[in-house]
Predict the structure.
Amino acid sequence: MIPNTMKAMVLTGYGDLDKLEYKEMPTPSPAQGEVLVQVTATAKNNTDRKAREGLYPTKKGETTSFQMGGKPTLIFPRIQGADIAGRVVAVGDGVDSRRIGERGLLDFNIYGTNRRDINLTPDYFGHGADGGYAEYVAVPSDQFHAVANETLTDAELAAMGMCSYQTAMHMLTSAHVKAEERVLVTGASGGVGTALIQLCRILGAIPYALSTSDKTAALKELGAESVIDRSDMDSFVDRVKAATGGKPFDAVMDLVGGDMTDRFIDAMIFDMDARETCPRLSIAGASGGNISEILWTRIYLYQVQIFGVSHGTREEAEQLVEWIRNGQLKPVLHGAFRLSELHQAEHYFMNRDSHYLGKIVIVPDSRWEEHGKQWSRESKA
């Protein structure tokens, strides 16, 4: 029996955590071509915080969330949460009723067109439409992908959500990364970073992680060739040479920005004679600052190719799901919190210690015993 109302964490406006209110909301009904999913776990992304704080400006000085389609789509009240795992409990018109009971993972994108190879006006569930910080969500049936892999719990499945993995995939495909190339992964311990390390290995590329020394063992186990300590950037290029045998990186996957970007370019151009392709910089984040000061002569004289990456494509999402189904991609799950404790989860995420690696998932209170308790981080928050 599907209830008429559900518990949800509702974003009521731009601002701090007080704008997130845990309340009763109407349970959505699936429209034509949609399925109603009972949410079992939703991965938390830094995107949630940045959207809440209005940190996706497309013009200087504005406080807003991105609106590449020409108008704002983050309209309040809004239920956030993009990376949703759960089970189909109802279907809309035109959807096969045999999908009821199916466990799956959402392709989080709200696509502007039907094209499969490009996504130029990206939006996503939890931003332009309600997401998974609730007990139920209605989503397009063709974007809720069945994953029957019994080796994965629902929390682990949510931790492999598309917001991180598809961003990572699109960073690599945009920069045309290929087998045997040396790739620097910045922000290596986060969701996109850990996805990048795994995806590099699937593609045959060689990932080098930029992180802290205490995470060396875990990142190497995940697939990093070497871990370069970010605490000493003055000797960064020398340590790159030591790690790579004196060879420059072929490409950098930059999630940091700020002053670091110039250092990352240094690590690609110190020996141009050793290169076979142009230096490539994929940018999908700015955790170290939204403004980087770079000499344009360094860009055009060294022929540095720069790729801005937000969301990926339908083709990439389907490939990722296939790798999840057959076990080629592994979850990196740090822990879980109840939906009612989302404020606590945000504090934990923002003040995480050096042992943090991977993703946090949010589990509805009504599903906690089955899907969240074993991964609980609440007592350590």
